[in-house]
Carbohydrate sulfotransferase
Amino acid sequence: MDTRAFYRRQDVGTPRGGGAHRSPRTALVPRFLRCRAAVLPSMLTFLVIVASGGLLLMIEKGMLNSMETSLPRRSAARPEHGPAGRRRPVAADMDTQILQELRNRTIHTMCSQKDLVDNIWSLSDLQRKIVLQHVLVNDEHRFLYCYVPKVACSNWKRLMKMLSGALKFNDFRSKLDHHHDLVFLSSLKPDEIRYRLKHYFKFMFVRDPMERLLSAYRNKFGEIESYQKSYGVKIIKRYRKVDSAKGDDVTFTEFIKYLVDENEERMNEHWMPIYTLCQPCAVTYDFIGSYEHLERDSEYVLQHIGAPSHIRFPERQTWYKPVTKEILHYYLCTVPQKLLKELFLKYILDFSLFAYALPNTTTEDCRH
Ligand SMILES: *[C@@H]1O[C@H](CO)[C@@H](O)[C@H](O)[C@H]1NC(C)=O
Ligand SMILES: *[C@@H]1O[C@H](CO)[C@@H](O)[C@H](O)[C@H]1NC(C)=O
């Protein structure tokens, strides 16, 4: 099956107004969302779900395997500048190439919807401020990196400091100052921003949206006292209707309720949707790596920007607590279904643009 054919059909099946419920693609919308069209905030959201449903179905049915031959083979990871041949080339396997291609095309298709702004100057002031504050600049190697908290951003910030000489090579143990010695796009003048957006290599890293939220929850509410005292207290007072609280025992469901009630542009960056942080329609990223292939994708970027070969992405720390599929499933199943639906809708662009499957959380699935 040819991906192009898939997307062409996608376009045809995409109702431009009114006919959503008759779309043949409706069959691909996850069952629990299909009967709830009334709750969808806009047609756009509906289209996004339709498209991601299509992707998911293809992934689940293994249709991707048969597409290999029709995909253009990418010359995997050849450094364009810098010391050619010194870094070992990274081989992207076929699945990764296909995922990259799907993400690329989905973003392309989705971002051409007229509701989604295609350049940063047309964003609202607040939206533009958020993205400019999350894009880091390296002029020597001519690249921009949009950092997403809970997606290995500390390690990438360390790498950026190493590249600019502010941090000793491979000193990954030192405590990271998240602002010092880093250049944010927001600190530059409009002309300088325009130039860099146009000419630099731009990349970001994404992660399964629910894994990212669970990771933020376990880290901030489980370990960080300042978060318990600020967000924790606020959440418990709001949802338990009490006057005072210590804030150290926020449940996952309370956290999810809070997320559903918050405006995504006013959220803390650790749980703000990736879409809002990096605006992948307004900034056309050249490469979107994923947490699931962190080391390899990072190596690809380092190679592409011509980083010296002794700068390497660090191995995972020994204290690192992974969020496994089983743990995520366990936590999600503690949350009422209705609330989960609202949560998925809130993060629907992160699921669909970056081709992540909606988790299985029907009563049936949760029995296991
Ligand atoms: C998408 O594909 C185009 C054309 O092959 C390429 O130039 C671009 O870098 C890709 N973008 C991403 C995010 O992979
Ligand atoms: C979700 O559940 C369905 C039916 O139980 C199953 O076929 C599918 O593979 C599951 N998907 C994921 C992503 O776990």
Summary: The longest strand covers residues 201-206. DSSP finds 16 helices and four strands in the chain.
